[in-house]
Amino acid sequence: MAVTVTNQSTPLGARLVYDSSATSTAVDNTTGAAGTLYMVEIDNTANGAISYFKLVNATSATAGTTAASMVFMCPASAKRSFAFPEGIAFSAGFSHWCVTGAAESNTTGPSSAVKVRYVTSAS
């Protein structure tokens, strides 16, 4: 097997968003501008139930009312990473929240902290 390492002249992502306790209350406009999403990491190890991390391409959101642009499921007591090598473009900025159900109307937050990181670049 061969391994190739390629040096990058510019970083893939310009912004790392970290929420040490994502809840059912939306955090608005975390990226501050349009850009590209490259990676999402969800740490749900503190919870014995599934958590759903929701991102919306908008400068503001309300859990239970705003339709998410992307929904990421993380199993109970687990950590998951989602990578998008080509990136996913967004036009406004991201707002996010975390709940215990996939339904758009769900507003129940996880019982313990869900740690979330995502990497974006500015457009």
Structure description:
The protein is mostly beta strands and 123 residues long. The protein contains no helices and 7 strands. Strands 1-7-2-5 form a 4-stranded antiparallel sheet, with no helix packed on it. The chain has a 3-stranded antiparallel sheet with strand order 4-3-6, with no helix packed on it. The protein is globular and about 40 Å long. The N and C termini lie far apart (36 Å). Residues 1-5 have low confidence and may be disordered.
Shape: globular
How many strand segments? Answer: 7
Q: How much strand?
A: over 45%
Output the structural class.
mainly beta
Stretches with pLDDT under 50, minimum 5 residues: 1-5
Could you tell me the mean pLDDT?
90
Sheet with the most strands, sense and barrel status: 4 strands, antiparallel
Number of helices: 0
In a few lines, what is going on in this structure?
The chain is globular.
Key traits:
3-stranded antiparallel sheet; single chain; mainly beta; 7 strands; 123 residues; 46% strand
